[in-house]
Amino acid sequence: MLHSKIKTLFLASGALFLAISLISFPKESLDASIRGLNMWWEVVFPSLLPFFIVSELLIGFGIVKFIGVLLEPLMRPLFRVPGVGGFVWVMGLASGFPAGAKFTARLRQEKQLTSYEAERLVSFTNASNPLFIFGAIAVGFFHNPHVGVILAVAHYIGNLCVGLIMRFYGPNEKGSARDGRKGSQIREAFRALHYTRLEEKRPFGKMLGDAVTSSIQTLLMVGGFIILFSVFNALLALVNFTDILALMFSYALKLFTLPVELATPLIAGLFEITLGSQMASNTAEASLFYQIIITSFILGFCGLSVQAQVASILAETDIRFKPFFFARILHGFIAAFLTIIFWKPLYINLQDPANASHAVTVFFHNQTTNWVIPFWEKISQFGPIITIASLGIYLCIYVLRMRSVLQ
């Protein structure tokens, strides 16, 4: 009872603080809101929408079931999740936050995952996409494409490590027995694909409309959280609350022999990835090495803004949020540690043209930046047009469906 009263008091005080701060700092709140809105409609919405729509269609047509049967021998021993987790993992890495949570919740609603399997899966399938790491952070903030390599490697290997650790979470659950022969497994995968398609009674037009509306509704929710936390972060800085937290965090940074000047960027990054990464890149008092360590931690923790988006998506299911939150803390520390390990081979050697041992790294870097950076620039340029057009289509579908219901 006492815990419930304290929670009520905390939530009410937070809402009251936000309301008073908005009234006290209207111009600053508007500027922060516009920054969040620009990030959403220029990059987040156009980059995530295709993945969300395609994933809904793949699930409806049974292709996810097909992939799940094929990947069962890999995903079950490694992560103690069904093979469909492989689809969620790949889509989550490719499309970024909070796609992994959306796909996991969707599969849980279809009973393709148990609650514990879903909690394990969501803990390591939410990651930042390569577009954001190389385009926004490496090029946009640090003006150095080379740092994108080390950030990406530390981030994705860290996610893999989190998945391997989280396999020990929850009780032992026996997966369905499968014939070990390859031919039998492929036949079973096609059978699952066929039966799933037959069970889907919606016509293609209805399925496509549902995919579009569901995806846009999720992205509207994501946009709301991005704008809210952008404003909230700015207000905390205006009332000097960020400085108080930074003073407390400076002692923690000293324990890890990190520059205390990075405390403020770290605090900002705990709330919102983009702002924290940008502030870390602008901290002239710290060397690039320490800036990348803090940025890597921020990417792994993914910020309370993204975590609030995930919590909102998971609230529609029985998937608990606490394992995801624990995994994000774990991912932050692992990614920062991996950054220290990979700093010399993936950055120092990359800067030395006379060092022949980095040939593979240079190939990876060139192949990545050759398409990621131009694609990021195109997304930023045409993103608002895509967003407005998509919202127009969504509005048309919504009006037509409402008209059919009223008739």
UniProtKB/TrEMBL annotation:
Protein name: Sporulation integral membrane protein YlbJ
Membrane-spanning segments: 48-71, 78-101, 121-142, 149-169, 216-239, 251-268, 288-313, 325-343, 379-400
Domain of life, source organism: Bacteria
Native source species: Litchfieldia salsa
One Pfam family per UniProt: Gate
Domain Nucleoside transporter/FeoB GTPase Gate, chain residue ranges per copy: 43-140
Key words, A-Z: Membrane, Transmembrane, Transmembrane helix
